[in-house]
Amino acid sequence: MTAELFRALHHGGTLLVLPNAWDPVSARLVAEAGFPAVATSSGAVARVLGYDDGQLTPAATMFAAVAQIVRAVDVPVTADMEAGYGLPAKEFAERLLETGAVGCNLEDSLDGGLVDVAQQADYLAEVRAAAGAELVINARVDTFIRPVDDPVAEAVRRGREYRRAGVDCVYPILAPVDQLAQVVEGVGGPINAHAAPSGPTPSELAAAGATRISYGTSVHAYLMTKLQELLPTLR
After folding, report:
1. Which regions in the chain score pLDDT beneath 70?
2. What is the number of structural domains in the chain?
3. pLDDT tens column, 164-174
4. Is 60 within the bounds of a domain?
């Protein structure tokens, strides 16, 4: 499936909802449920593979996991690739394209703090230059999960810089619904928002201006909680 098709899903006037998968089985279930694309969750993939979240999964292991998911479905796959695993932008883009993924998330925090906005914009621009139009880049903005004096203003500043760097979508993760609307107004273009089974709902986020919804680790976490509840009953 092409990046062109996946990119078009951000502009079709219909909310793009992406329950995040973590392995071929969960990816197939997402596709079979009628969702037009599959997004991976790096945190869920890491946990399934025995690693903690936070770029602790070896890059080769994460690329291999993404490739397995791509092979399992007939819809576009976009991969959560954290902060790029320390790879040079050109190498990162080439290795991701080799998996068959047509999109990626790249976040702007590392080691518990925000990356310098100019440095991150340069990296995103280099990924865009290396991948051309073959990757739909979703730039995650972490101002709502890191210590920031004014997370809305900083999210808008970063979002605008990342747009200028050539990204397709901006993702102010965990922005409260009322503040999300301010980011949407300030940044413009496709905006990804974070939903969870416990809320906020896709409809609430869409009303604030989001055009794309993803669930991060929350679907996997929900199922693991259900498994924990089930296991004691099996004795």
Report:
1. 1
2. 1
3. 999 999 999 99
4. no
